[in-house]
Structure formats: C-alpha cells, structure tokens
C-alpha cells in the first residue's frame, strides 16, 4: 500500500511535491500505528510477539541504542512495515526518537519510488502522444532508474550489516548472562574477636 502511494505521489505531483507529501503521510501513518499499539492495542501487540521470536533481540538492542536500531529497521525489510510499527510500540523507545528515526529511515525508499512514479508519468505522456522524448531524456530516465536501484541495494546492504552486527552483540550478551555457570563463593569461617586465643602446645 505504501509503495503504491509513493508511486502515485510521483505520478501525480512530481518529485519534489510527491516526496514531501509521501514522506509526511508515511510518517504520520507510522506514528498513528505506534500510538495505537502503545495504548488501546497494547495487549494485542504483546500477544503477537510470540510470532516474532527474533524481535526479542531487537527489543534489547533498542534499550541500548533506540534511535539507531529503529533507523536501521526502516532501511532493512526485516519485518513487514505495518507490523513493525506496532511491535516497536511495546519497546521503551520515546515517541520523538521513533518519529525522527522512522522519517529519516523511510526517506531513501520514498525518494526512489516517487522518482519511479514521475518516470511512469513521463512514459504515459509519450504513450498517449502528449509529449516526446529526446535520446538524452531517455538516457536520463534509464540512468535515474538504475541509480535508484543501485542506491537502494547499497543502502539496504550497509544497513543490514550494521543491524546484524548490533543484534549479534545482543545475542552474545544474552548467551553470556544465561549460559555462564555461577562461580562458587568461598567463605572463610567466622572468627569471634572476643573469643580468647588459645594455642595448644604438644609436649
């Protein structure tokens, strides 16, 4: 649904206006779901956590660096977008950090999709005979689409590596705290200071 809206925004309004409109709309939608999951829908969200066992690591990572993890989650499609909004609502991240991280994290995919939408509009105009493309224009369109795809792949790859590293560190810490045996505590026998010191000498 979000991808369709971004494409439609680019198709109808062009790149600058379409990007601003889609970016604001996507952020408002994410915040609305977050607030819903943090209030009246909290019990339902918690009941769904069992379906996403890996999210336990995400929750621990957010306790350490909430803004960074939410930003990376927006860049990497680890979980479905709509479900991620609700799952993040039961983590301790503040609303302000969640909103800013979500807005920034959704920017790359929004720009790419809106640009593709503007390209579809240009192609539609040519198909209907409402405009003409020069060879240079065709070249710019192709280069733009290729760059958008490459940018998304690179951003996703870098973000995924960073997210995997953060989650792996949390998993190691969890294993370290749960699997390490408790060391026995050795105590010295108590000595009463008021007790007289008796030295026994064998003759």
Question: Can you walk through the features of this model?
Answer:
This protein has 203 residues and is mainly α. Helix content is 73%, strand content 0%. The protein has eight helices and no strands. The chain has helices spanning 2-13, 15-38, 42-48, 55-75, 81-88, 95-105, 107-127, 135-179. Helix 1 packs across helix 7 (107-127), helix 2 packs antiparallel against helix 6 and helix 4 (55-75) runs antiparallel to helix 8. The protein is globular, with a radius of gyration of 28 Å. Residues 179-193 have low confidence and may be disordered.
Brief account:
The chain has 203 residues and is mainly alpha-helical.
Indicate the proportion of strand residues. Answer: under 5%
The level of helicity is: over 70%
Q: Would you list the SSEs in sequence order as H and E?
A: HHHHHHHH
Q: Based on helices, strands and strand pairing, what is the structural class?
A: mainly alpha
Number of strands: 0
The unreliable regions are 179-193
**Cα shape:** globular
Report the average pLDDT across residues.
Answer: 74
What is the end-to-end distance? 98 Å
Using only C-alpha atoms, the radius of gyration works out to 28 Å
Q: What's the helix count?
A: 8
Major beta sheet summary: none
